[in-house]
Design goal:
This protein is mainly beta. The protein is 4% helix and 50% strand. A hairpin with a 3-residue loop joins strand 6 and strand 7. The protein is globular. It starts with 5 loop residues before the first helix and ends with a strand. 28% of the residues are buried.
């Protein structure tokens, strides 16, 4: 079933580019590695800073817990969020993902992105 992004229908000039990142990306929460991948993709959108998305298979979900937080993007879809905990520390909503993105953004389905102010990202 088709699921087109309403944002692109309203603004067909808007461009979002998703490409392989080409280098290993490691995400740490404190001293604990919570994701590491050589298959990350980089999403570039308009005036926003580039965002690295890591495949779910390379994210260590034992350190993450889904929260009730959701947001909506008219170009990507509905985002869900995860909190992190490790070594007695915790932080809310450190990662987000588009688990059922609009058709135009299927390249980031089952990929997660992390807030650089809540985790350490080595890329």
């Amino acid at each position: 079933m088709a699921n087109p992004a309403p944002g692109f229908l309203r603004d067909p000039q808007r461009k979002i580019v998703v490409e392989p990142y080409g280098r290993t990306v490691t995400v740490r929460f404190g001293d604990v590695v919570i994701a590491s991948s050589d298959e990350a993709v980089e999403l570039r959108e308009s005036t926003y800073p580039p965002v690295l998305y890591i495949p779910f298979k390379d994210i260590y979900f034992e350190h993450l817990e889904k929260t009730a937080t959701t947001t909506h993007c008219p170009f990507k879809g509905d985002a869900t969020y995860w909190s992190a905990s490790a070594q007695g520390e915790a932080a809310s909503d450190v990662m987000w993902a588009y688990e059922a993105p609009f058709d135009e953004m299927l390249q980031i389905k089952d990929y997660g992105a992390f807030y650089p102010n809540k985790v350490s990202i080595d890329a």
